[in-house]
Amino acid sequence: MTATTSVAQSPRRRFWGRMFKNPLGIFSMIWFVILLIAWVWPELLATHDPLQQDVTLQRLFEGPSRDHWLGTDQLGRDWYSRVIFGAGYAFRSILIAMTIAVVVGVPLGLFSGWRGGRVDRAIMWVNDVLFSLPIILLAMAVIIILTPSLDNAMIGVGIAMSTRFTRLTRAVTLQEKEELYVDSARITGLSTRTILARYIAPNLLSSLIVQAAIISGAIILIGATLSFLGIGASLDDPDWGVMLNRSRELFRVEGVWQVVPPGMALILTVLSFNLLGDAIRDAIGRDSSNNALSITKRTAVTAATTPHATGPDVVLSVRDMDVEFPDQSGRVSQILQGVSLEVRAGETLGVVGESGSGKSMTMLSALGLTPAPGRMTRGSVQFGGRDVTNLTESEWQAIRGKDVGVIFQEPIAVLNPAIKVGRQIAEPLMIHQNLSKKAALQRAGELLAEVRVPDPVRRLDQYPHEFSGGMAQRAGIAMALACEPKLLIADEPSTALDVTVQGQILDLMAEVQERHKMAIILITHDLGVIAEAADRVLVMYGGQVVETASADDVFYRPKHPYSRALLDTMPQSHDGHGELPVISGMVPSATAWPQGCRFAPRCDFATDACTNDMPTLEAIGGDLVRCIRHGEIQLAPEEAVQA
């Protein structure tokens, strides 16, 4: 990449380029700089002392002249200098009110949006009550409690404005916490405080800046209104509201010019802050995608009745897992029913099924990440022989990222766009292995090299948008492998990639597995991927396990009609003549599971008996199958499927 290309892609340079292409944005920035100078160093711009009166009484109510650019007031004071010094009162109002609004509103919105539930509703109820009250009324209430002054009035304004920041921060937090890179951070074991500070807060910044710019104009207007009413700045201060108060009694006698200097300063300032907020919003222009995963609250779980797999090599064992989701009316839908599986060290378990079969939900629930408002109601999960069914979130954080790594389907979405790739890979190392930042970054470079990312040292200092899809997936694998986990869960790791890169990623996962002797759970709907990578296969349909067997048995001797139907849809099993077979219908909704066997409405071998009772999962040798006709029908393909 050339230097010219790098500069063109710089987010900072792109932002300022957009700002300077906006004429109204340029005006607002120029006016803001003038006001800032007037606040910090008013003597640089003012031509007279703003409090100096004309003791000769000869230069009262003068119009604009060479000596007094905007004329003089009723005491002979220079209008221009008073307007310049008035900018200081405007900025002081912003400083006081904005500090209170941000310090109170932003943390409260973060907490409310992240926590959810009753706490969120209680906070937002109080917030909405305060939001509904007039801002000036709150300011007057504070003045009554304290003493009348502009600073005290701004305390009340800040409290009122904090409700705006709470609402905004909560809304953005609710959206951001559903992003895949936040899910990845939770799975890597980062604490809630770290996720909020490093993953949620940076993505709030653009919205907060826009909000602050627009609200600043409102604060100035409210401050001027309070001073105009005589409950803000004192009557001798060069405050724009005070000037308007004094001028309103004189303009009918001395002319309208008496209200022009403070009035125009106030109008242009409020307008410029609003235009500045609009310009920043247009220049930032950030897109986002929603991928839901928010964690449900812990509930009581009924114990499993099926014993767990035993042996020192068993990494993960799940037994009799049920997961339910209530809707707004209180009706409960069972998403998973009686799901059992195990995976051993050095083994690859392929989990296959159509979309909506419950593959990803099974893995999320096994890791304590059942999406809200769902809940695991029955079952048991063991990891490394330890029962982890009822672990708290903090206890799970010690496992995720360290002992369990996850590769997600969308490689770009799983990486935080606001943080460099090297830092994201290094974070689990600093948390779980107590490495220094320097050592963690060095190890991150080694991990990128291990997953064959070209020029890994340079890539550490790049942002996710500078990675291709294949490189981003390799970076995701490096993150998942950072702490050498015992279990790697790959959720559709090659679906979003082209065929060539798919093969490279699968080969890479096999090499890494051989090197680290870890267990892999490979979730996919592609039987070709399963044939290439899996040792055993778990076939899911309608939230249930319908068959579990070795990969050879599933491909050469399938026992469930659904497994055979999936094999028939593979291009490799087609002779090239006629149309490729498809499975009629679609996976039913969890709110309308069919009676009896859930695959019966789509099954070519179904009889009336299949629609009466739910078939159980029967053991046949070392395999499991959920079909009452498995001993009656011949499902083995005539020719072996060549993967």
Describe this structure in words.
With 643 residues, the chain is α/β, with parallel strands linked by helices. Among the domains are: 261 residues, MetI-like (MetI-like fold), CATH 1.10.3720.10; 90 residues, no CATH class. A hairpin with a 5-residue loop joins strand 1 and strand 2. The longest helix has 37 residues. The chain is elongated. The relative contact order is 0.08. The N terminus and C terminus are likely disordered.
Summed up:
With 643 residues, the protein is of the alpha/beta class. The protein is 48% helix and 12% strand. It has an eight-stranded mixed beta sheet, with helices on both faces.
Number of helices: 23
User: Distance between the terminal alpha carbons, to the nearest Å?
Assistant: 39 Å
At the first level of CATH, what is the class of the domain at 6-48 and 67-284?
A: Mainly Alpha
**What would you say the CATH architecture of the domain at 6-48 and 67-284 is?**
Orthogonal Bundle
Helical proportion, percent range:
40-55%
Low-confidence stretches: 1-9, 286-294, 639-643
Shape: elongated
The profile of the biggest β sheet is: 8 strands, mixed
Q: DSSP strand (E) fraction? A: 5-15%
